[in-house]
Design brief:
Two copies of one chain form a homodimer. Helices cover 38% and strands 23% of the residues of chain A. By secondary structure, chain A is of the alpha/beta class. In chain A, the strands form two sheets. In chain A, strands 1, 4, 5, 6, 9, 10, 11, 12, 13 and 14 form a ten-stranded mixed sheet that branches.
Chain lengths: 300, 300
Amino acid sequence: MLTVFGTMALDTTRTPFRVEEKILGGAATFAALSAAAFAKTGMVAAIGEDMPLVNIEAVRAKGVDTKGIVTIRGGKCFHYDSEFDYNLSSRTTLKTELNVIADFDPIIPEEYANSEYVYLANNDPRQNMKILSHFEKPQLVVCDTIEYWIKTARDDVIKMIGKTDGVVINESEARLLCNEVNIAKCARQILSFGPMFTIIKKGEHGAVLFTQRGEVFPATAFFLDEISDPTGAGDSFAGGFLGHIARIGKTDFRTMKEAVIFGNVMGSFAVEDFGVRRLLAITKDDIDERYQKYRNLVLF
Amino acid sequence: MLTVFGTMALDTTRTPFRVEEKILGGAATFAALSAAAFAKTGMVAAIGEDMPLVNIEAVRAKGVDTKGIVTIRGGKCFHYDSEFDYNLSSRTTLKTELNVIADFDPIIPEEYANSEYVYLANNDPRQNMKILSHFEKPQLVVCDTIEYWIKTARDDVIKMIGKTDGVVINESEARLLCNEVNIAKCARQILSFGPMFTIIKKGEHGAVLFTQRGEVFPATAFFLDEISDPTGAGDSFAGGFLGHIARIGKTDFRTMKEAVIFGNVMGSFAVEDFGVRRLLAITKDDIDERYQKYRNLVLF
């Protein structure tokens, strides 16, 4: 089983082409929906009473175990309001209302405790380390982090990374964390904190996997003519990546490379519509078909 | 035979790590050196009397036919002085001394007239169209262009593209030319000007090939831990691309995809040392070895 810990949010997302208010989002939602297409996945998140029930139903309908979703009495959902520029590549935060996640003390349902796989999304690194102690003996723990934590809790971010097996991080945040531009050097620095591998995500340019054994796997992104909303691409990548690993049950280099491609595939679906709408619509066949398409696309 | 028309320059290249003054460079030099490793290649360029003879010898020693290099009496070489920032990705032009290329009226040696393959580097589009009329019946003509011509002679750039079979262009310049951010849309617009294919180069992120038949091939760049000088990567890409096509003698999609990879390979060599130094040092075996390495690298 894979447990995903992160936010289940209501997002307001604005692009020059469309605005969608209070749609279902959040790192855990994207990651869990992506992972559930591959393996048994549970979600740990705090929500407020304003979360429309239909959203929980939708996530559950895609196979996500929702017992770990805690509704905070009298609370309001984490709300993230942001705006993309014309090329949908640079985002401006308009409002971040932490609400129920501000003082969330995460606990996990008993059935999640023996999860072999754990994904700690870009939460407070101290929260991530705390929840990690509730798992009995996970085989593979992967974390993400973001600018805010690197800037405000750098030591804890590094400490957290040291307690994980893998890091999935954006190129710009890897550079910030390591104070280094060259991503190969960033990767080596992150690996020096302890994990077995790190994946540097480069958005529309794909991702590069680096392992402690010195292996490297650069993968171009699935080629899309058009995207609607880049929100959640990274978490969907992480979900697809971990979902495939949980399904196969191995972490050899070949499986990890395939997992990177499934990560790319899930990220590519996520950006085709606003919020998690596309992830709610696709089938396992769609995923396999796109994986094959990707293989044919990059074949030479 | 492949004829390359462009600059043979003396470059002053400054990085935060090293400065090299008046070293051999120029679009034609990078492209011809890269192409000559694959197929018979001649070079058309104007140089001044200050070009050290040793540079001509070095290019000739790598198999480039130099009969098309014209020395302008009393003239000085095109000199480009530029400085890279710390991450070697953004370049500031300090000085552009056109010198002999300002009023160059290119002519081609008689033996070049029946070239099957022609590469028109980022020259004045009117010069490119003019030289093109000297070839008898080339099978494949490929051009590049840069910001300066797009800004000062946009109509001629489009007219030139209409006379070619393929365009190799940087991402940022494709966006400028097409006034469009999405590179798939840029590619379609460039294809609407007439060529059979276009390749959008994305620097360290690789390149994407688009054909008139709707085929797409995104290729990640060869992964390098460290680069020394990004100068000439694009022209080396074009040289490797055209060199492979000239060697195989076909332009089917499969050959073009292989050619993109050989382009990536040559670009990756070019950036490993200052100027053309690395291109002068490598052997055909080095190229084949890196091609195989690339294949293994991206395999999954």
